[in-house]
Amino acid sequence: MVDQVDDSKRKRTRSPEHPFINLEVALKRAKQFYDHEQRNAASLNVAVKHWEYEPKSSGGLQTAATLISFGLIKDEGTGAKRKLQLTQIALRILLDQRPDSAEKAALTKQVALTPKIHKQLWAKWGATLPSDAEVQHTLTVDWEPPFNDKSVDGFIKEYKDTIAFAKLNESDQVSAPINEEGAQVGDAGSAAPKVGDYIQWESAGLLRLPEPRRVRGFSPDGKFALVDGSNTGIPVAELIKEQAPATTPPIPVTQVAQPGRQMQEDIFSLKEGKVVLQWPTPLSEESVQDLKDWLKIVERIFARALPTKDSVLY
Questions:
Q1: How far is the C-alpha of 65 from the C-alpha of 75, rounded, in Å?
Q2: Could you tell me which residues come within 8 angstroms of residue 19 by beta carbon, excluding any fewer than 6 positions away?
Q3: Low-confidence ranges of the chain (pLDDT < 70)
Q4: How confident is the model at residue 13, as a pLDDT?
Q5: Quick one: angle between helices 23-37 and 58-69, nearest 10?
Q6: What domains does the chain contain, in order, with CATH numbers?
Q7: CA-closest candidate to residue 253, choices 230, 224, 236
Q8: Tens-digit pLDDT profile for residues 236-274
Q9: Do residues 218 and 226 touch, judged by C-beta distance below 8 A?
């Protein structure tokens, strides 16, 4: 009899990896992490306490694994040295307070389909799921590896809740995997534009942009890119990668401060020309931190503009 019990335990079906919580709850957990750690990394034991779990508890570990599967958190190290940190995609979603933000909506759809099992189900059924009974039968009988019948109902609810929260519809297609910056990772490899690259738009043999623009995001299906200074998607198939300009041209803006604020300007002269920086005052602590992070990106852009050994002028 003992042998029979042991044999049944060995044969117990283990479900494929799947999110422990739906995307709406996962974003709330990401916000809890941000409220405590901001952009900094934290040990796994500290992170689970932010979610009100005890260290090494299954709920805390499953929450961390789920946020990683959605691409909201990245981890490094192992054991006691394992650390978690919010990804750029998570920060762009959490900190985007613009009403009806197209970028936030697009990134939310991307992370909803980031877990492998979510991509597979979306590719199979899209927005039109069959009955719960049919989905359950597919996952427990036809799926490889199959789901455990004790966990399948919970996963079906999580998946449906996530799809509804992200407002995915039939026009949204499964895209290639994305990295933490929101860039498509496809067969084109490094030749494909990614977030932060400068591009030109060539259509019908004509260049459509007055100067190269920086890519700041992609549509959920990966077919369109969003660039600085515009909310209009540009077909990825018509993009040409360009070198970052030696001095990044400012995006045209209306120089009018919000009520109660004034515009400040500082000009720094270089031998190549003038660098102009404008900002409204006063600024909130969060805006100051955002500016500091942006200036780090600008610093990297300046570094890429340095001449290489092959292009040094003598």
A1: 10
A2: 26, 66, 69, 70, 115, 117, 118, 155, 158, 162
A3: 1-13, 171-192, 204-205, 220-221, 246-263, 265, 272, 300-314
A4: 64
A5: 100
A6: 23-166 (no CATH), 189-242 (2.30.30), 262-311 (no CATH)
A7: 230
A8: 878 888 877 765 555 444 444 455 556 676 777 777 677
A9: yes
Tokens 């933000």 locate to 101
CB atoms within 10 A of CB 279: 15
Got the DSSP string for the chain?
A: -HHHHHHHHHT---PPP--SS-HHHHHHHHHHHHHHHTTS-EEHHHHHHHTT--TT-HHHHHHHHHHHHTTSEEEES-GGG-EEEE-HHHHHHHT---TT-HHHHHHHHHHHT-SHHHHHHHHHHTT----HHHHHHIIIIISSSPPPTTTHHHHHHHHHHHHHHHT--TT--PPPPB-TTS-B-STTGGGS--TT-EEEEEETTEE-SSS-EEEEEE-TTSSEEEETT--S-EEGGGEEEEPPPSSPPPPP----PPTT-EEEEEEEEETTEEEEEEEEES--HHHHHHHHHHHHHHHHHHHHTSPPGGG---
pTM greater than the 0.90 cutoff? no
Confidence (pLDDT) at 191: 53
The interaxial angle of helices 116-125 and 152-166, nearest 10 deg, is 80
